[in-house]
Amino acid sequence: MQFSSSPFAKPIKALIEQEITSNMIKGINQNLNAYIQTLPTLVPIGHTAAFNATLVPPGIYINTNALSIGVRGMFVDTQNPADVAPYKPTTIPTLLTNNEMIQIFVGDWVPDSASWVFTNQGKLNISITEALMTAAPFPFNTASWKTIAPGLFSKYPNYAMEASFGPLPGKPPATYFATTGITTQFFFGADFSVIASTGAKTAVFSIGVNLTTKGDITVVNEKVISTLSLLSLNVVLLNTLVGPIDTNGINQELNYVTQKVLLPYINEFTQQGLQIPVFYGIQLVNTQIVYGNGYMGILSNVQYNLLEENLASIKASKESYQSVEQRRSRLLTME
Question: CB neighbours (10 Å) of residue 259?
Fold first, then answer.
């Protein structure tokens, strides 16, 4: 028996590996996309909305450096599917570095489509009442607004007050991604009323509120979570039935209401998070959040823990596509 070494061994091996890799990539790009198209494309978000995970060109694409997955990424109203958010995707990166194993990029049309859906569903409307302001340094009644709106107190002395906030018609919150981070601009209207001892409400004035917030993005348990904090707030008077209103005074009071009531209410939605699709046993580690003009990126490595409980979870989760569709249908019809 004779062993020999050829100077051509390494080049031949490299050519064979390259050919095998090329054919595997070609097969995956052709066949995997066809299979993925048969899977459910709507990920339920609560009972009335969903995330559209339909593949968009090039779908799932693999080259020698990375696996790339393109999805539509729009929020949809499952109760009114014809009401489609009027936003167009823009160009975003597919790969920033060769260091992280997973790189996810989100364009600003994604949060904008969520704003569109939740605004049209009335989910961003909130009423501020005296009961919600019990911890405030001032009571929410006409007596405490005597200096801000003298005519209000003269006409309705010691009346309780209520303010109904909601996005102005046709102006859902708009999110902007930039290299400096994320900002969201809200254009709210607020209708103020007084409440008589009988419970009867009377409209007294309306204001417009231009609110700008900063978004802090974190990844917790493979969920993308956003927390909003106040950057600026400006008030304009839209109409009044009780004479002059000091908008500077309202600005100061609304600053408190925004930070203690309004933003915590909105953050209840954003804190629900958006699940990053990963397999059982896979955890994201050393996750970084990066920002660019028109997009944000989540760069992460992964850690795989092949534990007994993960194996049990994998076994328990094996179900047919039909049963998945049935579960999804039930979720979408739950009230």
Answer: 13
